[in-house]
Amino acid sequence: MRQAAIYFLFSNGQLFFSFDLSDFYSNWPYGKTQKKANSYSQTRIIELVLPPESNHSMPELKEPKIKIALEDIATQIRRDILRMVHGANSGHPGGSMGCADFFTALYFQIMHHNPQFKMDGIGEDIFFLSNGHISPVFYATLARSGYFDVKELATFRKINSRLQGHPATHEHLPGIRVASGSLGQGMSVSIGAALSKKLNGDSNLVFSLHGDGELDEGQNWEAIMFAHHKKVDNLISTIDWNHQQIDGTTDNVMSLGNIREKFEVFGWTTLEMDGNRMQEVVNTLEKAKSLTGNGKPVAIMMHTVMSKGVDFMENDHNWHGVAPNDEQLQRALAQLPETIGDY
User: Fold this and answer.
1) Are 48 and 8 in contact (CB under 8 A)?
2) Where are the domains of the chain?
3) Residue 334 pLDDT > 90, yes or no?
4) Prediction pTM value
5) Beta carbons within 8 Å of 321's beta carbon, 6+ residues apart
């Protein structure tokens, strides 16, 4: 009996890749094979066994032709967000849905991270969410990438749940390194973590996400100035530039002008991207990584659409912190097909 082992990546309890073994063995006669595994972040070995009665030889393996369906993960995360917020009748769906592509790219392709969570984060990239009210997208991403069981998403904002409205370390939820949601503090925390990595000789990176309306807080600009002065060049901070905040558009509440120019004046290296085009998100984050280590922190201006994916919710600040009702939920989910399995 001949056999061989091939490594693949699979989804969180659901099929992620359906593959035809003829892609790997030019004369493989047995058609398509499907497998399941427990986590996207885990790799499973598949033993391919030729039946003893077969006369087929085992030629050299060809390069696998597999494309990770990041868009499908992002769609599922958007479904998770809506169902979580609806189930609690409370939460912040707008910014969460707008940032689903960013979180998917970050956790499923860009960051070097370990779902076997350790608070100190030594030897891995780490992420801080500054605008903690978009916790639904953070929790859904953590669950889908293997930090905890996706079924726990059903407890969002419930009494005694680890998934509180704003992330906190008190609940010891894997993946959460700081309490956030008191806006304006995440930049300072991220800079401190990045400096700690430098002091520890840890070459990994720190990523952070901030809302555009959050930049109304003055503490951000003190930290932004400090990061350049201290050459915190292992930090990549992304600004969700969706032009919306809880009381209206950012132009009406507090005009921010050109955010990219502000960061450049403060001495940062800057990039800009459409945060709802997956390949552009991946490419820009990869570009940002290549710009680290050059004496400057890196900032990405990410243009997103609030509530991206559901037409009647998009670009409307009223969905900043409002849960959909039963009828709205069904209308919304009809626009977001279930791709890798609801919790």
Assistant:
1) no
2) 2-50, 70-327
3) yes
4) 0.81
5) 91, 92, 94, 133, 246
